[in-house]
Each structure stands twice: as structure tokens, then as C-alpha cells.
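re: ur msg from earlier - yeah i can do the PRP complex, just paste it... oh wait u already did. ok heres what im feeding in:
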Amino acid sequence: MNMKDEIVKVMAEADCLHSDAEVSAALDRMAADVTEVLKHANPLVYVVLNGGIIAAGQLLPRLRFPLEVSYLHATRYGDKTQGGRLNWKVKPTEDMHGRTVLIVDDILDEGNTLAAIIEYCREQGATEVLTAVVVNKSHDRKAFPGMHADFVGLEVEDRFLFGCGMDYKGFWRNTLGIYAVKGL
Ligand SMILES: O=P(O)(O)OC[C@H]1O[C@H](OP(=O)(O)OP(=O)(O)O)[C@H](O)[C@@H]1O
Ligand SMILES: Nc1nc2[nH]cnc2c(=O)[nH]1
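and the outut:
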């Protein structure tokens, strides 16, 4: 099967775990929670590329207080369904010394990605580093016991997901709804 046919088939056979409307409602709740905590903090928001693009694009316009936005690029899955060593493609460039930093990503799975980013931001002098993810995957393989995000939209089951920033072989990041690959 060629790649395009495979990509179309994966979506046709996928299980929709959360509809567009459910994700949208979760983002509303997240935005309210983030606002409550950070409305006076003048945070520096870091979007984690590539997966955090949709999360940030949907969450940030819901935040009606002053903030700055930048990006970093760190990846450890590539086209695979299991993560490897974290590859920093672009490190943060803004001065975060003394700042409250909010990291925005699509998913907290094992948490190695966010753990490394949090550590890096603290080393760079951030006063406080908070994290926001659209989904937290429920399982007992977190990077360390108690690893969690500060703001979570939805809890999802332990399957390989795509949509809302998460890719299947580079495709289908461009949905709001969240899907699980058939059989994975
Ligand atoms: O909690 P973890 O097990 O570390 O996994 C979470 C990370 O995995 C995905 O990124 P990925 O490495 O697939 O890169 P991408 O964002 O470019 O797709 C996702 O966007 C998170 O950043
Ligand atoms: N696309 C995708 N990327 C991930 N990164 C960590 N977990 C996942 C997942 O379930 N799907």
C-alpha cells in the first residue's frame, strides 16, 4: 500500500476517543485554569514543536492576559510509536531568567520530553516552570513517580494516538479531535 492510501486507511479505521467538541470544551476548561493561576504572572509561553502547534493555536487565543510566546523543538518519537532519546532540534532562545515559564504541548505520555524541558528551563534561571498538555496518557510508565502536567485537558487511555497535534507518520496532526490507531 502506498503512503497516501495508508494514511487515509488509518483515519478511516481509527477510534475517535474525543470529538472536536470534547477537545474544545477541554481547552475552555484549561484556559480558565491557566488564567486563574497565571493572569498576573506575565508568563513566557514555550510551544513544543511539532506536536504543540495545535494545542498552542487553540489554547493561547483563549487566554486574555499579557504573555509572550516562543517555541522550542524537541522530539523523541519520529515516525515510531515508541520514544527514544530526546533530540533537541531548537533550544529556547529567549532569556527566561526570573520568568514564569509555561510549556505547552499536545501530550504527556511517559513524560521524558517535558521532564527534560523543565530541567533545561530551570537551569536557564526560570523562577517557575509550569506545563499544559491537551492529553495525559494514563499508564504507570511515567519518567518518574508523580510526573504530571500542571494543566491537563483530557485523560486518555494507553493507546497510540493521533490528532490535535499528534501525528501518525507525520500526518493527521491537523484535527481537533483525538484518535487511536486501530490495534495500537
Ligand atoms: O511524554 P513523552 O513520552 O516524552 O512524549 C511526549 C512527546 O512526544 C511527542 O513528540 P514527538 O517526539 O513525537 O515529536 P513531534 O512533536 O515532532 O511529533 C509529543 O509532541 C510530546 O512532545
Ligand atoms: N502521535 C503520538 N505521539 C506521541 N508521543 C507520545 N505519545 C504519543 C502518541 O500516543 N501519539
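cool cool. The longest strand covers residues 128-137. ping me if u need the other ligands too
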